[in-house]
Amino acid sequence: MTSWSVVIPTVGRASLAELLADLAGQAQQPQAVLVVDDRRRPEKALTVDAVVLRGGGRGPAAARNVGWRAADSEWIVFLDDDVRLPTDWSEELLADLRSAGPETAGVQGRIAVPLPAARAATDWERSTAGLENADWATADMAYRRLALAEVGGFDERFPRAYREDAELALRIRRRGWKLVHGRHSVVHPVRAERFWVSLRVQRGNADDALFRAVHGRHWRRESGCPPGRFKWHLATVAAAVLAFTRFGRPAGLVWSLLTADFFRRRVSGGPRTTDEMLRMAATSVLIPFAAVWYRLRGTWRHRGSAPWPGPVRAVLFDRDGTLVRDVPYNGDADRVELLPDARQAVERLRTAGLRLGVVSNQSGIGRGLITAEQVAEVNRRVDELLGPFSTWQVCPHDSEDGCACRKPAPGLVLAAAAELGVPPSQIVVIGDIGSDVEAAEAAGARSVLVPTRQTRPEEILQAPTTAPDLRSAVNQVLDQLSGRRR
Ligand SMILES: [Mg+2]
Ligand SMILES: [Zn+2]
After folding, report:
1. Could you say which architecture CATH assigns to the domain 314-479?
2. Is the peptide bond before 408 cis (omega within 30 degrees of 0)?
3. Is the C or the N end of the chain the one with fewer CB within 10 Å?
């Protein structure tokens, strides 16, 4: 059985309702439809027939991460909130997913951008139509959840729908996965846009700067992003600046020739309407300056950035079955027995400068089998043997309480992250069962599963990273210290 969920980041555009209606009308239905509301301060909740999660206005990359982490299907299908689905979309999608081999991490849908038949397409319409040839565009892209978890999902430093999809694809392919083009397709209408849209999208030059800072100067070739016009913009700006020096005359001539050439390229093939000519004239003068400005600012801001999700700064251990022998509902400090590799594991990580903590479910308290005092006694003993740990997070609740802290909920990991002052993306959780891994993922942290006899086979299969013992789990964490991942 191929299981799939749909994740749609949205800023509440009207097109969302149409997309959801298209989706509801499909013959094959997803396990879940997760809409991530990415408005910064929503005045009222979205009224849609789907699970709505909060993205917090951090952009589509972060919103999609919130979405896939909340899903537990084999495949995650990302859709933009402004695409429309043909009636056979789900059947074609399923056929694509079923024919994807185990080495295939992602399947992209074909994107059709309808252009007006009666007249030439405007500059904006043609640039939207570029989506038809874009590789790994998340307007309609299915990824294996496992592959997303393996690389930590989208790089949340990309604040807009630009480059974040190509960058994810690059990291996934570098780990040996394949990405393929499928047969299913969506329709991506051209949005009505304002006069200055082509100027506004120059902000994307800051994202190019981030891409380059992270992946080096050959980032375009490696990610398949087509060459841009940045070098021409740089030359145009340089000529304009020189026009104010003693090379004023020739430099001014060069500037006007470059600007006129840029304008000519943009209007050729377009409609000769007054509106379009005015837009192109005004923006062709300003775009080179905007492009260079955003690129410089991005280069400064992202200098020295490491690939997402960056180096590890803290490690959170599960307690029972990971650090100490699992004695069910142990309330007796004398029965604490370290597992063989525990002391060495903790010491190696501490020597490497990592902050360490413990995240532990103790439902025995909620069920009245042991007291909170007894658990604290046991934890003090563990701290004596292995500590001091920088944070201890314990969930005292029974599984029936529906609390937000009991693993696999993310509460304990998030609380530890807050106490340590380390973002979850730079934390590794080491545990022995699936709920340790799930808690990490739900919080946006990484994980290493060290299976014991308690671990179920499917938990091992679903874990993005496993290690045969604590020693090799620590090796894997130390490999991520520099930001490098295996
Ligand atoms: Mg455990
Ligand atoms: Zn709890």
Report:
1. 3-Layer(aba) Sandwich (3.40)
2. yes
3. N
Total residue count of the chain as it appears in this document: 486
CATH homologous superfamily for the domain 4-192: Spore Coat Polysaccharide Biosynthesis Protein SpsA; Chain A (3.90.550.10)
Q: Which of 37, 81, 320, 436 is catalytic?
A: 320
Provide the pLDDT confidence category of residue 482 given band limits of 50, 70 and 90.
low
Which residue reads 């874009």 in tokens?
A: 134
- Whether 4-192 and 314-479 share one fold: the answer is no
Check pLDDT > 90 for residue 300: yes
What distance in angstroms lies between residue 322's CA and the mean position of ligand 2's atoms? 20
Q: Please, which pLDDT band fits residue 365 given cuts at 50, 70 and 90?
A: very high
Distance of CA 367 to CAs 363, 396, 398, 399, Å? 6, 9, 6, 9
pLDDT at 118 exceeding the cut of 70 = yes
Does the annotation mark 88 as catalytic?
no
Ligand nearest to the CA of 406: 2
Residue 412 pLDDT class (50, 70, 90 cuts): very high
How does pLDDT run across 425-435, given as a tens digit for each residue? 999 999 999 99
Cα distances (Å, whole numbers) of residue 157 to 63, 74, 206, 267, 392: 12, 26, 11, 34, 29
Q: Is 318 a catalytic residue?
A: yes
How far apart, in whole angstroms, are the C-alpha atoms of residue 419 and residue 401? 24
Q: Where are the domains of the chain?
A: 4-192, 194-306, 314-479
